[in-house]
Write a structure and sequence with these properties.
Blueprint lengths: L7 E3 L7 H11 L6 H9 L3 E5 L2 E7 L4 E10 L2 E11 L6
Parallel strand pairs: 1-5
Antiparallel strand pairs: 2-3, 3-4, 4-5
């Protein structure tokens, strides 16, 4: 496995609080997701897929849902593009 820095960089849009807003918007819908859960999904996924230069990591978060994290490897860093909860049944988990 290629060695990469364990820094996870959350890609920002033009809004500087994009990542924080994502955590807050998920919380509004009943999903309390932390930065450490996102990191754990990337570093210890239940399943991982790849499409082009993007990786899709899936990690269980409860009995009905999993966390899906989209990230890329850029110059030795793992850059999180987005993350969102999914139903486990959709991914046969």
């Amino acid at each position: 496995m290629e060695e990469v820095n364990l820094w996870l960089i959350f890609q920002r849009s033009s809004l500087p609080r994009h990542a924080l807003e994502k955590f807050d918007s998920l919380k509004h819908y009943g999903f309390q997701i932390s930065e450490s859960q996102v990191a754990d999904a990337v570093l210890n996924p239940e399943r991982i897929e790849r499409r082009g230069n993007q990786f899709f990591a899936v990690k269980l978060i409860n009995s009905k849902h999993a966390l899906r994290v989209v990230y890329e490897k850029r110059k030795g860093f793992l850059v999180v593009i987005t993350f969102y909860p999914v139903r486990r049944e959709r991914y046969d988990l």
